[in-house]
Amino acid sequence: MEDHVDRPLDGITVLDFSQFLAGPVAAMRLADLGARVIKIERPGTGDIGRTLAFAGSVADEETVSFHAMNRNKEGMTADLKNPADLERVKDLISHADVIVQNFRPGVMERIGLDYESVRELNPRLVYASATGYGNDGPWKDRPGQDLLAQSLSGLPWLSGSGHQGPVPVGLSIADHLTSCHIAQGVTALLLRRARTGKGGLVETSLLEAMLDLQFEMLSVHLNDPSVTVERGGDRSGHAFLAAPYGTYPTADGFIALAMNPLPKLGELLGIDPLLEFTEDDAWSKREEAEELLAAHLATKPTQDWLDVLDAADVWCAPVLTLEELVAHDGFASIDMVQQVERDASLTRSGEPMALKTTRGPLRVDGHPLTSDVASPKLGQHDAALREEFGWGSEA
User: Fold this and answer.
1) pTM above the 0.85 mark?
2) Taking Cα atoms as reference points, which of 77, 16, 10 lies closest to residue 391?
3) Which of 216, 231, 208, 230 is nearest to 152 (CA)?
4) How does DSSP classify residue 236?
């Protein structure tokens, strides 16, 4: 599945000291862009993500989620508390361009692999650090976990209706966005290094990613404290947007309506009471408007409503289930699926492993950034790296 794009990070070596999820995905993004990524794990157990299964799904002894976030990497084991292993790692650092790590504050300092220490080994190094809540403050030692970061940021109070308690986002959104910020910071510092010759340190946290996600709400509230979260009714899709913004049941599914004038919807759909709604009513009477829409839209299938609304250029879409999504031509046309492969010599069963994953979401020069290289077995490239860097036979 390899393409022929000139990948922008070709020739860059990244050492990935991180584990499940923000750090490994950040390093994977750099690998997608062409970097050589060497994943460094503790012997015996490795990254916790190898066994922390999403939906219990496993392939060749590792979780499918581990395969998905560590594809296209080499694998090396090192006990960072072992002096000989630590020296080998330091030698590798002297040859590397980037380090990605997401240990709790203080861990890399105790090992002697913090930025101030390793810049003495390699002044051109770009060092990326992701934490849960930063290096200071009352939360710095709390576990850096996605649900916890969402909760501390207040994000769960933005989803659902005013009749519910907090509703977290059902994906690892804090980890995912942190990985994007780390990858962005690394590429920016590599560009600066090309200009100045200097390395640098880029830091972010799950909490900062969650606060950045809420930049509109926080900016408005900080300037006008009277603006606060007021979730709408059961159909509302946004605490700060007026009706009809939300999702509505139809006879065979659901339909999403974005920002649209209520009188226009009333005319198109045949809901006479909506014709009288003003722009102010769309906010002050949003639950009433939502219930009028919900009752009417439930009388016909989704496609019937789409035929009417799409013809009038109304902002709307069907709300697809997972199964509907992957079966849809729209999913196929965006070409987000790739297949990674592990040779039979590396699998427990002795049979080759082929696994479908999503690809990186970028295209470069018109090419999607795909790769068929599976995640590494624990320590898969130890021998090859010893030979390449002249470390001798065994630890």
Assistant:
1) yes
2) 77
3) 208
4) B
